[in-house]
Design brief:
This protein is α/β, with parallel strands linked by helices and 750 residues long. It has 27 helices and 10 strands. Keywords: Ion transport, Membrane, Potassium, Potassium transport, Transmembrane, Transmembrane helix, Transport.
Length: 750
Amino acid sequence: MFLMFTFKCSGYRVTLRFLACWLSSYLQKLYKDTLCLAYQSLGVVYGDISISPIYVFTNTFSGRLKFNEEDDVIFGVLSLVFWTLTLIPLCKYIIFVLGADDNGEGGTFALYSLLCRRANLGLFSAFHAQNDHLSAYSPGLPIKETKTSSLLKEFFDRHHSSQIVLLLVVLLGTSMVIGDGILTPSMSVLSAVNGVKIKATGLPERYTVLIACVILVGLFTLQHFGTHRVGSLFAPIMLAWLLCISGVGIYNTIHWNPGVVRAFSPLYVYIFFKKAGKHGWSSLGGIVLCITGAEAMFADLGHFSQLSIRIAFTAVVYPCLILAYMGEAAYLSKHKEDMERSFYKAIPEVVFWPVFIVATVATVVGSQAIISATFSIISQCRALRCFPRVKVIHTSGQIHGQVYIPEVNWILMVMCLAVVVGFRDTDMIGNAYGLAVTTVMLVTTCLMFLVVIMVWRRKALAAVAFVVIFGSLELLYLSACFAKIHKGGWLSLVFSIIVLFVMCTWHYGTLNKHSYESHNKVCLDMLLNLGPNHGMTRVPGICLIYSNVVPGVPPMFAHFVTNFPAFHQILIFVTIQPLTVPNVPVNQRFLVSRIGPSEFCFFQCVVQYGYKDVRKDSHAFECHLIDTVAEFLRSGGDDCDAGTSGGEMSVNHQQLSPQGPGDAVASRKKVRFRGVGCSKELNELEEARESGLAYMMGNTCVLATETSSYLRKFIINVVYGFLRRNCRRPETALGVPHTSLIEVGMVYRV
């Protein structure tokens, strides 16, 4: 008995030791991966906010702000910078906003999709109820709905116009981020290159502009290597930059004015506004530049993880920036005449050239954050049909959110070069930059108000406190930026209005096109008359007919059979349905149903993609789709002989085996026709598969009706038509083989 007890105890010891070792190795790997991502995020996420010390003080004092003998104005600016950095990036984004991710994705569109899915709110929520089988739609533990969330939901349900306004606000924030993608590289690189004038005072301006243009071309050329390679290349540069500016900051603080630490007291904010007056309010347009890139922390979330971004900011970026601003303020308190290029003037003579070189390279890195964010947000908009079709390339097999968009990359490069060559003035670019930054942040705050109430189901007091604390500060900065519209701020508005107009036009035209197809879809009676007795010929093979009609048959098919009375042995009407989730598992992607009697072999297949999914391989797509149809027929084998009168359709929830060996078994929602002869249909499917597969797509021309207004005709016929002709063609975007494609021309009058 004693021996048995000892044996059991030793067995438990071995088991516990094994579990402890496994847990230890798992945690080590987890921390190692997280720290590696945190290190890479320095080169991608934090480049923009890290290079802001180059131009914050210069832009702040570029107006009529005057100094006084007590240094209160300089200390007041430092106090504003400190509390702005603490409240917005640290408190708002790191603590709160990063927690509102959409299955790991961030940005204004991710917040909107989260509201659409979890709160059934917005214009993309119409088909959420039928997609509750998706694992990505699972909200986790149910949260009790509050009275405030019910009232808000009722308000949005009653007023459809409020949902349109909400989408417009989201698109406005998105357009401002894209505008940032143009202004950030221009501002950063030009500010750094201008530092060379400290030593080469006689250098003509055209040479600094030329150097800035060469650097910008090099930056955008590197983008096709992908975020992970760029991040690994840029991270050590950014780390060296942060260590440089923090070291210089410590030296300047100790050497020139250690008393600058008093500026951490919010009392100096009050003293600043009291002594500076309206000029102090106007200078906020320069102070806000200290938080440029804060939105990129959230927008670039899909490239990294919450924990890695939080570690990098709190442990490295935030303390280094505070030290840098302290040192610059300490230097200025003793050298008020050096305001024009205060950052470079504050660098000790011994290390000037090394720091200048690092600064120039760091500005290139600094632009990477907003460029990556622009790619991510445009990819999300494109997937939800709010942006014209563009080529999206996934550059990493591990981090799904790392994307590169060639067309957008080169357009950004051309626009950046135009801004640098056209303006040549960092003050004017900075004014435009500040307006874009504050607008995006305010949009995020408004969306977070809805998320706190309708998704997190917190009390209204918490949401109101969030808006009051952060929204009031952002409104203050926004008002100061609006006051500088005539001094360059108009540039940001022009960029954002153009992008917003393009997105709204594309979304409006696409909705009208889909609405036309839904109202003119082919009725079932016409399909029942398509037989040999009516002159129709069936040819061997499978044809995938792409349409936007669910359920039903698109008008394009009726147009085809009217002019060419023959079609394939098996027809599968394929509808690509974008969802407001980042990714849809392959084994949950295809939803199959039958159209008409079984002898016609007509099927409907809804293919669901998340806004981060990309179809890469047409052959793999064909295999998955046909295997899903076969599984659909096989799953109805038990009921095939039973039959139902009148061709009754039934909805079944059942467990289906996934296609891949590594996928988990998932519950898939099926619409199944109960008929006779399933084994015969499976044989016909296999024979048709061997005969070959063709694709049919509509080559449609969308025009406004003759009775439409001139504005509607201009938007649909001119703008939307121009965008459709110049974006990627649908067959290219979907990866359809050109040799297997049948195009059907048709005119839609919407």
